[in-house]
Amino acid sequence: xxxxxxxxxxxxxxxxxxxxxxxxxxxxxxxxxxxxxxxxxxxxxxxxxxxxxxxxxxxxxxxxxxxxxxxxxxxxxxxxxxxxxxxxxxxxxxxxxxxxxxxxxxxxxxxxxxxxxxxxxxxxxxxxxxxxxxxxxxxxxxxxxxxxxxxxxxxxxxxxxxxxxxxxxxxxxxxxxxxxxxxxxxxxxxxxxxxxxxxxxxxxxxxxxxxxxxxxxxxxxxxxxxxxxxxxxxxxxxxxxxxxxxxxxxxxxxxxxxxxxxxxxxxxxxxxxxxxxxxxxxxxxxxxxxxxxxxxxxxxxxxxxxxxxxxxxxxxxxxxxxxxxxxxxxxxxxxxxxxxxxxxxxxxxxxxxxxxxxxxxxxxxxxxxxxxxxxxxxxxx
Length: 381
Description:
This protein is of the alpha/beta class. About 40% of the residues lie in helices and about 20% in strands. It has two domains: about 140 residues, 3-Layer(aba) Sandwich (Rossmann fold), CATH 3.40.50; about 130 residues, Dihydrodipicolinate Reductase, domain 2, CATH 3.30.360. An eight-stranded mixed β-sheet has the order 13-12-11-7-10-9-8-14. The chain starts with 12 loop residues before the first strand and ends with a helix. The C terminus is likely disordered. GO terms for molecular function: nucleotide binding; oxidoreductase activity. It holds the Pfam family GFO_IDH_MocA.
């Protein structure tokens, strides 16, 4: 049974997008390319930026404004796509959900796990879907890797190597924990997608190579333990010139029946046997939309059918918790338990929550670990 409101209005889903910057332009492209949706409103604090983004795409008749709820009401919108900066995710998502609109929000759900828990409670209180766009789940070759991983028996070790050298300029080169906070959530989320498991703990070290053009640590290695005993090892650097990996990294999955390799782009390579002892074959790749187009398609399907999407906020919290725990471990030099991160975040969420209806939902969870873990299990598996 659906736990969020669905939309059965005929015709394309009418969308208001919030945020018209660089990523906002990419979302405008994805929305206009999908016949199942229609962009009817664009919200940005800088309305000139919004109008310029629409003009670049040659779009007329899209209402521009600075208020999510006002633009949505004026356009008869069905849903919101939130492409704002992370610090604005929580207030924009809350405004939209309590205006009666489901939301597809760019990752991360929020800057902190505490705010993400508040959003999960807000989704329950409002009865609306909040889906986080983990766009790098949507690669057909990653789906092939997931299928193969399911045939390898018990999984012992998964590794991701991520080595790129982007010169972004701007805020990324000045931010703390830039690799962990801005990029690592993608592979952290992907390993949960591959295995259907949640992490138990992490030990992480960060450092900044002497030649780095980033102000703070731009390289990290993290070792996660998962519920089955699986170890996931992530090693990455954002100042690694030469022989760069793909943006998805380079993966190795080792299980009791063999190994699968994925370069982050092409179909995986498998050296393994199936349960019958026969050589394991890689399934044919699907042809579904990828990256943000894939995320958008799943969101539309979810609000039309009531089928819970992979990126639903309750499920996504553990991916964000992996980042927060890795940062804590890097800062303290200690192994960090994910449950401790969630419990601390829950206390922070309870203390900070201003809406009485959302706070009532948070209070109603009782034991947050048991209640939330059971919700995650029901949603994710």
